[in-house]
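We emphasize that the prediction below concerns an isolated chain of 226 residues; any contacts that depend on oligomerization or on bound cofactors are therefore not represented. The input was used exactly as deposited, without trimming of termini.
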Amino acid sequence: MRPANLRVVDLSFTKEEESFREEVRSWLDDNLPAEWRHRGVGGYREDDDEDLQRRWQRMLHEAGWLKLGWPKEAGGRGATPVMQAIYQEEMARAGAPMILGRLGVTLLAPTLLGHGTQWQQDEYIDRILSGDLVFCQGFSEPDAGSDLAGLRTRAERKDGKWVLNGQKTWSSGAHYADKSFLLARTSTDGEAHKGIGFFLVDMHQPGVEVRRIRQMTGGGEFSEIF
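Result of the prediction step, given as a token string:
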């Protein structure tokens, strides 16, 4: 007999969730070209597939998939976590390519939606989602990875502007990114986890250098940023 205090968890999908799965699968059947499927098998092809990934991102954006979990008042669908997992399952099943600006779409755009100014939202969000503006991430450093308290990149205020000095590493897609969202230390006072600023940096401005990291596989999706 089952103990009286043992709760039974129903892991089956609801009719609404199964209907959503069919919607995603049907859309992929109609819109994902056969020659684009399963191209990531065997390793990244970031040099060959950059244009393809940008085109695929634009298609997903225009169809509303990149705002799947966003609130309806922000133009999203308000999808539940289960529905978002189903979406990812169907993308994997179909062998859909990655999108080019995945870090901007998954990390930066929601951050701007929740914490950015109105100008930042108007200036960046739609361009990030469409793939017209690609961001890389500048968090990890040679001596600071998962523990960002070890950040050494400095940001100093000079003549009304922020001047950044330091090095970032393992930055995915930095070699083709337009901008980077990165963390830099604005103060050394107090606890190490405080005094850290969040910056949007133009990757094409003077003083920014990107060095690609070649891996044993021959790929080079990671870079150092100076």
